[in-house]
Design brief:
The complex is a heterodimer of chains A (221) and B (248). Chain A contains 7 helices and no strands. Chain A has 221 residues and is mainly alpha-helical. Chain A has a single domain, classed as Up-down Bundle (Fumarate Reductase Cytochrome B subunit). The N and C termini of chain B lie far apart (61 Å). Classes of the chains: A mainly alpha (221), B alpha+beta (248). Chains A and B meet through α1, α2 and α6 of A and α1, α2, β3 and β4 of B.
């Protein structure tokens, strides 16, 4: 979806209506590098985009159904203080805080991310429909400020999804690679990665602390 | 089982380091293979299937009452409206060689007609200030003046069996066929005026079809014929792989 969308975007890599300027995109008329795109040409990318959009929608609905039926949505509902606690996690990861803040099933930063991802996913779908049918579904397009702005929000939603997903997958590998299997199976046995979950990125590649590594008895002279 | 903290957690026999290296290698290889590609040839059938299904959805969504409305504060594109044609130079109707230009309305009609530009101008005129939606993603606001398509259809006494309309041009072999609902939409006009002036050759003179409910490439310029048909007839860009429907 992202690759074909960027290929479509490259046919007119700007947001301005003809004869106008656009305020809020610093790269107007600068094409996205071709290696980030998919579909080969505008028509091909559009076919991929308009075929795969149904997969995205069905995928999203299945996700929402499961998270509702399993009651796991409760773990993701934002609560007061989440923003503050997320900031504490950022401070921990950037060595500005020593101890790991409360983890729980998800720490506050994870929770915020996992809540925002489906929100941006839904935004991408709805703004996508708005720019697909700007006349037949004009009231929807108007909700986002008209075609030009709906196209902009579609782009922003994509950007947010990409950033959140890249950071998310990076953190899986950096903090808790064991959990990669649970992304697919849903099972998670915390006893298999007890320490890693409360660690900084690539903690497992850093030299061990003295307490964690019993050094061999010193040789006597 | 992992009493020694130095031991990495094993996943399917790989330790974490191997897993990271092999995993990122696989992912990069897959991404590189996908880069800037058209996707596998075997997916073409699936994409065609999706286009057929989308066509059905889009035709279901179509309402004659849905109108394009220009946003308040939007500026006219004026001379920023791009000019597109497929011939190597701007197509101009050569009167000395081809005689007076006339628009032929034919096919499944009871009363085929040929209308010169003067004939068209004598018919009831409308001016629509509407958006132009290009397949590339840009839009442009312009005012198009001309004859509502429905008036031409009535004049030619269209047969109820006509389900599609082909708009043909003298810009090489350019043509695009439409579903009849879209053609009969109130905002579809055969336009000979743009922004209060007569249409210029750069934008399709003497006349072109114009409707905000279709993407730009469906709106044939340099019109010569409007042919009512029982079956769809593809089009210049549709035959090259763009969606045939191209509706907004």
């Amino acid at each position: 979806m992202v690759g074909s969308g960027l290929r479509i975007f490259n046919a007119y890599p700007a947001f301005a209506r003809k004869g106008e300027m656009f305020c809020c995109y610093p790269f107007e008329h600068k094409a996205i590098p071709a290696w980030l795109t998919f579909g080969g040409w505008l028509g091909g990318a559009r076919h991929w985009h308009f075929a795969m959009m149904w997969v995205l929608v069905v995928n999203g609905l299945v996700y929402l159904t499961f998270i509702y039926l399993h009651g796991e949505w409760r773990d993701l509902v934002p609560r007061k203080g989440d923003i503050r606690d997320s900031w504490q996690m950022v401070k921990f990861y950037t060595f500005k805080r020593k101890d790991h803040p409360h983890q729980g099933k998800h720490n506050a930063l994870q929770k915020t991310t996992y809540f925002l991802l489906p929100v941006f996913g839904a935004l991408a779908v709805v703004t996508g429909i708005a720019i697909w049918k700007p006349v037949q579904l004009a009231p929807l397009t108007a909700v986002f400020g008209g075609y030009v702005w709906a196209r902009y929000w579609h782009f922003i939603a994509m950007l947010a999804i990409v950033i959140l997903s890249v950071v998310h997958v990076f953190m899986v590998f950096a903090v808790d690679p064991y959990s990669i299997t649970s992304m697919i199976t849903g099972n998670y046995d915390p006893s298999l990665s007890p320490e890693a979950r409360n660690a900084r990125p690539f903690y497992h590649l850093f030299p061990r602390r003295a307490t964690a590594t019993p050094s061999p008895p010193p040789e006597t002279t | 089982m992992n009493s020694d903290p130095r031991k990495f957690v094993s996943i399917n026999g790989l330790d974490r380091r191997d897993f990271l290296i092999q995993g990122s290698g696989l992912v990069s290889a897959a991404l590189l293979a996908a880069c800037d590609s058209r996707g596998p040839k075997s997916a073409d059938k699936l994409l065609k299937y999706a286009e057929r299904k989308n066509l059905a959805v889009e035709r279901k969504l179509f309402r004659h009452t849905s109108m394009d409305v220009v946003q308040g504060g939007a500026h006219d594109a004026g001379n920023k409206l791009p000019s597109y044609f497929i011939a190597p130079t701007v197509p101009v109707w050569d009167e000395s060689a081809r005689g007076t230009w006339a628009l032929e309305v034919s096919g499944l009609v009871g009363n085929p007609v040929r209308l010169t530009l003067q004939d068209l101008q004598k018919l009831p005129q409308v001016s629509n200030r509407v958006n132009h939606y290009c397949v590339e993603g840009w839009t442009a606001v312009e005012t198009w003046t001309g004859v509502p398509f429905t008036d031409l259809a009535r004049l030619a006494r269209v047969d109820p069996q006509a389900q599609f309309v082909d708009f043909q041009s003298f810009d090489d072999d350019y043509h695009e066929s439409w579903d009849i609902e879209s053609a009969m939409h109130k905002q579809t006009v055969v336009a000979y005026g743009l922004d209060g002036k007569m249409l210029e050759p750069a934008h399709g003179a003497p006349a072109r079809v114009y409707s905000p409910i279709k993407l730009g490439y469906k709106n044939t310029k340099y019109l010569t014929k409007i042919v009512f048909m029982p079956r769809m007839n593809g089009g210049y860009w549709s035959d090259q792989g763009y969606e045939w429907y191209g509706g907004t």
